[in-house]
Amino acid sequence: MAATAAPRPLQAVLDVAAAAALRAPSVLNTQPWRWIVHERSLDLRADPGRQLGAVDPEGRMLTISCGAALDHALIALRTEGYDARVELLPDARDPELLAAIYPAGHHTPLAEDFRRYQTTLRRHTDRRPFGPDPVTEDMIAGLTGAALAHGVHVHVVRDDQVPTLSALASVAAGEELADPAERAELARWTRRAPHATEGLATDVTVQGSPRRVPLRPHAEDAAGRLPAGPGNDSGARYLILWGNQDGRRAWLRAGQALSAVLLTAAESGLAASPMTDLVEVTDTRVSLRRLLSWQGHPYAVLRVGVAAADLGVPAAHRLGHDEVVEIDRPSS
Ligand SMILES: Cc1cc2nc3c(=O)[nH]c(=O)nc-3n(C[C@H](O)[C@H](O)[C@H](O)COP(=O)(O)O)c2cc1C
Fold it and tell me: What ipTM was estimated for this complex?
């Protein structure tokens, strides 16, 4: 008779989930999170030491990044056979505690759970201009559905709104670079050597190239080294993730939605890159609301499209497990 493997202890399963979350996208690859693995629950904490204090003083992007990490952890838990109950901001006296995850019942992993987990291993931000192939309405419906599952709406920027978006992107980039503290912060997090485990290495940011809507320059004089390739963003679509609330709970949900949209895009054969300087800068964030007909609050702008050439996406590397994950071992 074949021996049956003993089930993994719950704390080890939770550690697997925390480890999977290290691959989540984060603003400038700051990875502003910490995970505490308890015996029966998992805590997601903000790491204020990794907050972009000048560019993101309210912690909006930090919190959205942590929401994306939460989504990644829950994906891993499902493939490990667990549903989970999640409490967002469970302790008003402990604002750095963003979420507590409690495994709650058995989940039989489905093929789509395994596929999604596999996607977390290969998805990366592609900042090169996309090719002319269209983003189909079916693809858009998939992305919209992925966000709505987290209560977040997607506005697909109409062609007649693209010039406004383009102008706002220029304003946002200009405002961040005009502020000495913001410029210094962007430079600090973006001029990293290849294989740096935090921040953006110059091999993942793109050499300057004209586009319909400019991407954030990342730092004035630190042009990326990744060749732009043959695309010119002619087939790119621009999405605004938005919702009715603006605050930390809403930003966590926005991060979960952003993660789900990025992973759905990758599974649909789409490349994607967030463009959040438009949301970080107060003036352009307010102006973006006009594109939403003043219906709600923008959380992130996302460029999606079909890669212009099958060149592969360079990976931004991550901090090691022990730098971010703490195992809570009860003292005996
Ligand atoms: C909240 C948030 C904001 C981001 N903003 C931008 C952005 O404005 N421009 C950009 O090129 N990438 C942006 N990104 C993508 C990150 O730079 C990227 O996820 C990170 O470097 C990790 O790399 P990867 O996505 O390739 O794994 C953002 C990601 C998140 C989660």
Answer: 1.00
